[in-house]
Amino acid sequence: MVHFIGAGPGAPDLITLRGARLLAEADVIIYAGSLVNPTLLEGRKADCAVYDSASMTLEEVLAVMEQAERAGKTTVRLHTGDPSLYGAIREQMDQLDKMGVSYDVTPGVSSFSGAAAALNAEYTLPNVSQSVIITRMAGRTPVPEGEALAKMASHGCTMVLFLSTGLLEDVEKELMKGGYAPDTPAAIVYKATWPDQQVYRCTVSTLARTARENHVTKTALITVGGFLGSEYERSKLYDPAFTHGCRKGTEG
Ligand code: SAH
User: Fold this and answer.
1) Atom of ligand 1 at shortest distance to CA of 165?
2) Positive or negative, the Cα torsion across 49, 53, 56, 62?
């Protein structure tokens, strides 16, 4: 059995209880060493074999899983954040299906949630934005034509960019081409929830400069939109006048 587990964004106590239990029981752990906090490995069984997938190919990862399976062992595949986002788990699951190896997935706290916490922010503010676009700038990994950054930016909603910190000159251009005003608030969140977390607030037109001045080149998320500003409407849900299924309001 293979367990795909979301390790959370960095802080070791942000893994789920289920994830932590499965980690502690694992015979083999394959972890994404470039981003997963190695502190998470400390509670492993004494005889647990550990592999850092940072330097491994898909084929090598699958070979480790297959060998463990033949020996009747349990493998944990530990991915950063939540495995469903840029986790490359589908290609592993499809091969495990072919190999007849069973698996399950334990979700994790994604870094985009960690970034919101670092910012003390709410992505979905009434009358500001009710949608979050999670995307990336096209680089060596292409992005489908219909999802070009300028097109995504045309919605003007909250945006969270993964894997794009090295491309911020282009990110700025595309965001403004898509319609964000140059002074739209933005923030770079470096290593959200890690001890060395940093938050750099700026605007869409100063993203590249801000990253350069603070030497941020990777392990960061770019967040953009009015949710970082000061204007919003209060919620209906907690408005004394508003009636809903659980509460009668003072009006109507
Ligand atoms: N599955 C992960 C994302 C993996 S892609 C998740 O749900 O968070 C790797 C990218 O995620 C990095 O390039 C960076 O943009 C972002 N990232 C991962 N951990 C981060 C963290 N703690 N703080 C900021 N960005 C992070």
Assistant:
1) 15
2) positive
Ligand 1 geometric centre to CA of 70 (Å): 33
Angstrom distance (rounded) from CA 121 to CA 183: 18
More confident residue, 176 or 251: 176
Distance (Å) from CA 81 to ligand 1 centroid: 7
Q: Give this prediction's pTM.
A: 0.96
CA of 252 to the centre of ligand 1 (A): 46
Tens digits of per-residue pLDDT, 14-59? 999 999 999 999 999 999 999 999 999 999 999 999 999 999 999 9
> Options 1.25.40.390, 3.40.50.2000, 3.40.1010.10, 3.40.50.1110; which CATH number does 2-106 get?
3.40.1010.10
- Cα separation values, 115 from 36, 121, 178, 198, Å: 16, 9, 24, 10
Nearest CA to ligand 1 atom 5: 86
The answer to whether the CB of 86 is under 6 A from ligand 1 is: yes
